[in-house]
Amino acid sequence: MKHLSKLVIAAILFTVVFISSLLRAQEQTLTDEQKEETVNNIGQLLIDYYVFADIGELCAAHLKTIMEKGYFDSVTDKKEFSDLLTQELQSISKDKHMRVRVERQMMDEQGSSNPLFEQFKFRQEDKVNNYGFRKVEMLDSGIGYIDLRGFSQEPQAFDLAVSSMKLISNSNAVIFDLRKNNGGNPEMIKFILSYFFEKPTHLNDLYWREGDLTEEFWTTEKVDGTKMSNVPLFVLTSSKTFSAGEEFTYNVQTQKRGVIIGEVTGGGANPGGTFPAGNGFIVFIPTGRAINPITKTNWEGVGIKPDIETPADDALDKALELAKAEAEKYKQKVLADAEAAFDNLIKNLDTAEELFNNNNSGAEEKVYSSLNNLLMENMINETDINMLGYEYLGKEKNRTAVAVFKFNTEKFPGSSNVWDSLGEAYMKSGDNERAITNYEKSLELDPGNENARQMITKMKSGE
To answer: Most CB within 10 Å of its CB: which of 96, 265, 409, 436?
Structure first.
């Protein structure tokens, strides 16, 4: 009896599996009525929403004509039908974004009809793919490298973008590898490129048929981290670089901000969305189009021609070769500019000393503005300023030294050391009252500052 029960169970399981497979096969089998309904639905959606209304009407008319001529009569498989619809639509529109697919849940045995769950699965895939940031690293010669596979719109993606930009912020050259990037969100493009333009820059426009609206995309003036507006930039492309990956590339190329290396890109410039077409089909319809503010056009259907054409597999090696040379040039220019800036600072401080000697009221302002310019450029810090103050103190240019130390206390008021240094400068200038005040401030911030405590005692006792 036990043996018989196992046979019965096995037979039941086989029957269940067979029936399930049969039902799935039936789900993928099309009737003539379903094909006609699907063609009519897609045609109407194109007429209503495609960014180029006249071409949408042509596409709809074309599908209806070939349907009536029996072009789809022998087709019963949904995947084959969707592929043929895509082929025919693109033959008229030349739009590589326009395509028909079988709904995901009907292709996937484990799929769900719950749209919230489908969205959750999509976000999970995005998360597992690290929101497009496949690799971020610093290479030899100070070259920052980012392998970016997509431009995610998830909030976590923007956090990753900030972290990535901070990691490569000290680069002498940067390479963005977009050879496997097939699209995403234009907001992320704007976000990342804001690190590479000093001033707000008009990157791209998106025109939307609905509402007859044009949306402008500009880089932002401020970023979380350090701007790299003068760092040499390289972008790698392949024939698979598509949509948003192409927009990033086109923005860099048209703004003459970097060098594009690789293959001509895929050629998809019209953004849009997915619409249900009935009978288990969905259609992606471009409802907008990109308009570059410089060229007044886009890359739809033609792709983007790189500045240096090379097979995609060779693009990184070529970029590294060029980037190393440009990184060295950038490094030397930074050093030369810094040397000139520091020489100019000393010249200004020496001039300020002359103004102090002539009791000119603009002397202190000259010290402040000279130091502030370099501080804003992140070329000097608290320690540098303190060292500079002592240099002038050692030359007995006390009034300039006091001005330098005062500037440091205003910019770094939470540092005990800057108040201690200013106290010493006042003491050597013979102004014990101000010296005591500043030493007391230093002691307040750091009760363990024995030097300040001793100096206060000494001056109060009149020693």
So the answer is: 265
Q: What average pLDDT does range 258-278 have in this prediction?
A: 96
Assess whether 301 and 341 both reside in one domain. no
Instruction: Tell whether 112 is covered by a domain.
Output: yes
Minimal CA–CA distance to 304: which of 358, 347, 229, 240? 240
Taking phi over 0 as left and psi of -120 to 50 as alpha, with beta for the rest, 422 belongs to alpha
pTM exceeds 0.85, yes or no: no
Average pLDDT over residues 223-241: 97
Contact 198/229 with Cβ under 8 angstroms? yes
Domain of 214?
132-272+287-326
Evaluate whether residue 279 is within a structural domain: no
Residue 260 CB neighbours (<10 A): 25
CB 232 within 8 A of CB 327: yes
Task: Supply the mean pLDDT for the chain.
Answer: 91
Phi, then psi, of 446 in degrees rounded to 5: -140, 90
Q: State the DSSP code for 237.
A: E
Alpha carbon distances (Å) from 116 to 1, 94, 222, 280? 48, 33, 36, 17
Q: Is residue 378 part of a domain?
A: yes
**Structural element, H or E, at residue 23:** helix 2-27
- Same domain as 256, residue 237: yes
181 with 214, same domain? yes
